[in-house]
UniProtKB/TrEMBL annotation, chain A:
Signal peptide: none annotated. Residues 360-391 are annotated as: Disordered. This is Rab-GAP TBC domain-containing protein. GO terms for molecular function: GTPase activator activity; small GTPase binding. Gene3D superfamilies: putative rabgap domain of human tbc1 domain family member 14 like domains, Ypt/Rab-GAP domain of gyp1p, domain 1, Ypt/Rab-GAP domain of gyp1p, domain 3. Residues 105-297 form the Rab-GAP TBC domain. Residues 360-370, 382-391 have a biased composition (Basic and acidic residues). It comes from the Eukaryota.
From TrEMBL, chain B:
Signal peptide: none annotated. Belongs to the small GTPase superfamily. Rab family. It catalyses: GTP + H2O = GDP + phosphate + H(+). The keyword Nucleotide-binding applies. GO terms for molecular function: G protein activity; GTP binding. This is small monomeric GTPase. It comes from Petrolisthes manimaculis. GO terms for biological process: protein transport. GO terms for cellular component: early endosome. Keywords: Endosome, GTP-binding, Hydrolase, Lipoprotein, Nucleotide-binding, Prenylation, Protein transport, Transport.
Length: 616, 205
């Protein structure tokens, strides 16, 4: 990275840095510890601590404590039952009564004990005595993740009593657990997102138990978070797809609404799945979810993702893209809007619903999501890893990235489909279309690249809030539309830049099935002048959509379009060359053969998608 | 055009234009990406800004003459592991702020690789700004202003040293980007819209 340093020097420097960081955590807050003033919070008096240890502004509404005390009373009344169950664990564990009680919430005082039991921590510790110590020691010396872990410990739940003071006991433990784990499971190492999980575990478990709890969450098939955190995040994609399936089946309207607003589930599920809703719902509810998560395993993630959306579907339906993301990212954390008990009841119902539909679980994970190497084996890190030189993507990562983007595009495309509303406006011919336009904040799914004939022009690809053209030339770029190739049936695209005619320009893609001709009412219609915005009739009329005076493609082997001086109507047909979709990044433009301009309607001879590009 | 349902019209109209731009923040972990966004969007600074998992989305609107520019901001996670998700966020972005920490030379190196990647893979006309953040920690400076400025000039990047903590240059860098972004004017009609319509077999329009 630094031109000046050799690989050896980089490695030496990284080792030194590691040693310094590790020694700071060893020292903790003892005398002589170096703690920058900015790293330490000043103790401000206007703070109050809630029962979970989080520090809030003193101005918290008083009503909260009322609710809290009610909850407290309830927990205290349940405590004897729990103590009894803990005492004869084997008698109760897994029984209906036990499960019911977990759903009702494990009293906070015994939460740690119960979590430890649910995760079989005693067995794990017993089987691998001394392992944690060993991993901690090796990790401090060798883990290449020390630097990132240090950065993240410094900003993990600093609003919680335990993690407030720099290098204080719990910060030390958090650091050591993560460092040890990064050594223990080198495929995962350390990934951002794990520090909050480990911190949560530390709120209820001691250091070594928290380490094994983290390990159980990662590697036990019941939770299998390993697949989420390894490079490329393969499980994330699989879960997102399953989540989409669930929405498709149970919340199709909401799904359409999200798609119309171009919200791919990838945008909100990542944190939900990686951290089991930490920081996305209020903390007390998070704990209840974690109780169920530890009991039921990974299916909780899908079930609660569904539940959360289901409970809020009406509110979400009224929001647009920004607001939805804000709602899911922030609002729900501040106030979930329903009492915890009601939420958990809804969750139970949702689980049942999913079970009946056989959608409660996405099935066995593919091999590559599972740990491939034995845990706890020490290997010296490679020079590349140690020097921190940026590596290229692995094949796996590249694949995942590609699939993710394809997904996003496909969803955006679906979203566009859905926003079309076939109206019966008198302005249009009887069965003309009224377009219900996506706000320009919606991502588009096209990469419109600049054409060599129009270099000043720029348009943007997926997630583009508004496609725009910097140039004054009245021609437009050609779609590169990789996404279309992923659709089925494969679509081919053409675009209709026109130096003469007014907007709209159209881009059509289809299997060879659209027969186009101007309806009689407009057959003799001439182009409106540039200064007048197109009337809806012009805008959406098939005839004007498909006028192709001139086409050019910026890509390597464009099919030359015919240059026309007068409007001509074309039949849209796919590339003659092959039925195989072209590779991403290459578009096949199928240039149309003229068809009779005077028949009167457009009829699709099979399902077809037409993509319109409109000026605004 | 009036028929089209004013509420959904993203731009145009008589009283000044509204332009929306997608902006992405990239850079090594803990250089202050989230803090810059928080400062810009909410005017706040948190000493213990939580780390970003995946990405976070925020919006902020600024006014430039008669144009209202709305930024849709994607704040990304800095860890290398999340690099594989980055294209999802910078794809289609009209602007990017690549952030480094002036007290850490490595983060400047990483910023350069981000710039390279954007130049290769992002939209060709993307406006890239380089932000040397934590300028308030000048006594710990490891990256010289001139070094970064020279690099920025060579690569036609906007460049500013910023501090999310003191707010220095934070609004300014976003404003500078807004100014540099091509905005629609009446001659170059510049807002596009794509729309897909599916016809089922036999349907006529
Ligand atoms: N002194 C100083 N600290 C900053 C500044 N910006 C961010 N930080 C701190 O740097 C740490 C990382 O910031 P964050 O915004 O989370 O970085 P990100 O990972 O790039 O999003 C936090 O502790 C911030 O408080 C700044 O301008 N000056
Ligand atoms: Mg961040």
């Amino acid at each position: 990275m630094d031109a000046g340093l050799s690989e050896d020097e980089l490695v030496a420097r990284a080792r030194e840095e590691r040693a310094t960081i590790a020694s700071r955590y060893r020292l903790g807050r003892e005398e002589g510890a170096v703690i920058d003033s900015w790293e330490d919070p000043e103790l401000e008096i206007y703070h109050t601590t809630d029962r979970y240890g989080f520090i809030h502004d003193g101005r918290l509404p008083q009503s909260r404590t009322k609710e809290e005390s009610k909850q407290l009373d309830l927990e205290i009344s349940r405590l004897p039952k729990w103590l009894k169950m803990i005492k004869s664990w084997d008698k109760y564990w897994g029984k209906e009564k036990f499960i019911k009680r977990v759903y009702k919430g494990i009293p906070d005082r015994v939460r740690g004990i119960v979590w430890a039991r649910l995760l079989f921590l005693d067995q794990m510790k017993e089987e691998q005595k001394g392992k944690y110590e060993e991993m901690r020691r090796l990790g401090c010396k060798w883990s290449t993740d020390v630097r990132q872990i240090d950065l993240d410990v410094n900003r993990t739940y600093r609003d919680h009593m335990m993690f407030r003071k720099r290098y204080d006991v719990k910060q030390q433990q958090l650091f050591h657990i993560l460092v040890a784990y990064s050594m223990y499971n080198q495929e995962v190492g350390y990934c951002q997102g794990m520090s909050q999980i480990a911190a949560l575990l530390l709120m209820y478990l001691n250091e070594e138990d928290a380490f094994w709890a983290l390990s159980a969450l990662m590697a036990s098939p019941k939770y299998a978070m390993h697949g989420f955190f390894i490079p490329g995040f393969p499980k994330l994609l699989r879960y997102q797809q399953h989540h989409d399936k669930i929405l498709e089946k149970f919340l199709p309207k909401l799904k359409k609404h999200l798609e119309r607003n171009c919200i791919d589930s990838g945008l909100y599920t990542l944190k939900w799945f990686f951290q089991c809703f930490l920081d996305r719902v209020p903390f007390p509810l998070t704990l209840r979810l974690w109780d169920v998560f530890l009991l039921e395993g990974e299916r909780l993630l899908l079930a609660f993702a569904y539940t959360a959306l289901k409970l809020h579907r009406r509110q979400i339906a009224r929001l647009d893209m920004d607001q939805i993301l804000d709602y899911l990212q922030k609002k729900l954390e501040k106030n979930f809007g329903y009492e915890d008990d009601y939420v958990i009841e809804s969750l139970e119902k949702a689980m049942e619903e999913l079970r009946k539909a056989k959608l409660d679980h996405p099935g066995a994970p593919p091999d590559h999501e599972l740990p491939q190497q034995p845990f706890g084996m020490f290997t010296e890190p490679s020079v590349e890893k140690e020097s921190g030189v940026r590596r290229d993507f692995t094949e796996e990562e590249r694949l995942i990235t590609e699939r993710l983007m394809k997904r996003t595009e496909t969803i955006a495309l679906n979203g566009s489909h859905l926003s079309v509303d076939r109206g019966q406006s008198p302005l249009y011919s009887a069965n003309a279309l009224r377009l219900n336009l996506c706000p320009s904040s919606s991502p588009s799914f096209f990469s419109l690249a600049s054409s060599p004939h129009c270099p000043s022009l720029s348009c943007h690809s997926s997630f583009s809030p508004s496609l725009r053209c910097a140039g004054k030339q009245n021609s437009i770029a050609v779609s590169h539309a990789p996404s279309l190739h992923h659709l089925s049936p494969p679509c081919h695209s053409i675009i209709h830049p026109s130096p003469l005619s007014p907007p709209p320009y159209a881009l059509a893609c289809s299997p060879p099935c659209l027969t186009v001709s101007p309806p009689s009412s407009l057959s003799s219609h001439s182009s409106p002048s540039l200064s007048t915005p197109p009337s809806p009739a012009h805008t959406f009329h098939a005839a004007s959509m498909l006028r192709v005076p001139h086409c050019s493609s910026p890509f390597s082997s464009p099919v030359s379009p015919p240059l026309c001086s007068s409007p001509t109507f074309y039949k849209v047909s796919p590339s003659s060359s092959s039925k195989v979709p072209p590779p991403i990044g290459h578009s096949v433009f199928s240039f149309p053969t003229p068809i009779s301009p005077f028949s009167s309607s457009v009829t699709a001879s099979q399902d077809v998608s037409v993509v319109f590009v409109l000026w605004l | 055009m009036a028929q089209r349902g004013g509420a959904q019209r993203p731009s145009g109209g008589g009283q000044g234009k509204i332009c929306q731009f997608k902006l992405v923040l990239l850079g090594e972990s803990a250089v202050g990406k989230s803090s810059l966004v928080l400062r810009f969007v909410k005017g706040q600074f948190h000493e213990y800004q939580e780390s970003t998992i995946g990405a976070a989305f925020l919006t902020q609107t600024v006014c430039l003459d008669d144009t209202t520019v709305k930024f849709e901001i994607w704040d990304t996670a800095g860890q290398e592991r999340y690099h594989s998700l980055a294209p999802m966020y910078y794809r289609g972005a009209q602007a990017a702020i690549v952030v480094y920490d002036i007290t850490n030379q490595d983060t400047f190196g990483r910023a350069k690789t981000w710039v390279k990647e954007l130049q290769r893979q992002a939209s060709p006309n993307i406006v890239i700004a380089l932000a040397g953040n934590k300028a308030d920690l000048a006594n710990k400076r490891m990256v010289e202003y001139e070094e970064a400025q020279t690099y920025a000039e060579e690569n036609s990047l906007l460049f500013m040293e910023t501090s999310a903590k003191t707010a220095m240059n934070v609004n300014d860098i976003f404003l500078a980007i807004a100014k540099k972004l091509p905005k629609s004017d009446n001659n170059a009609r510049s807002c596009w819209m794509l729309q897909v319509i599916t016809f089922k077999t036999g349907e006529t329009m």
